[in-house]
UniProtKB/TrEMBL annotation:
Alphabetical list of InterPro entries matching this protein: Caa3_sub_IV, Cyt_c_oxidase_su4_prok
Predominant place of localization: membrane
Ranges that cross the membrane: 16-36, 42-62, 74-95
Keywords: Cell membrane, Membrane, Transmembrane, Transmembrane helix
Annotated membrane topology: Multi-pass membrane protein
Protein name: Oxidase
Pfam family, one: COX4_pro
GO CC, alphabetical: plasma membrane
Keyword hit for Zinc: no
Record keyword Cell inner membrane present: no
Locations listed in the record: Cell membrane
Organism lineage: Bacteria, Pseudomonadati, Acidobacteriota, Terriglobia, Terriglobales
Amino acid sequence: MSEPTHHEQHIVTPKIYLIIGATLLVLTGATTAISYVELGVFNAVVALAIACIKASLVVLFFMHVKYSSKLTKLTVAAGLFTFLVLITMTMTDYISRAWGLW
């Protein structure tokens, strides 16, 4: 009888690590290159989008969430949801202030 917490282990090949590492380096270069392009208010948006892609790659492959159990994926999703709720509450407070009227 197998244990309920036991699951198959997935072996990630060094080739995958090299591909993901190279992708992270390319995205870092893209972040640097886009900082020299004048996009107006979209500079931060593009930089944050690239950062989110890089963070997702690190979480999925280097932290092995892609090959983990559903409970681990749920835990990561719950943490991300909590983070988004806190950022939304912070931005709501920041935007609702009457700056300069006090």
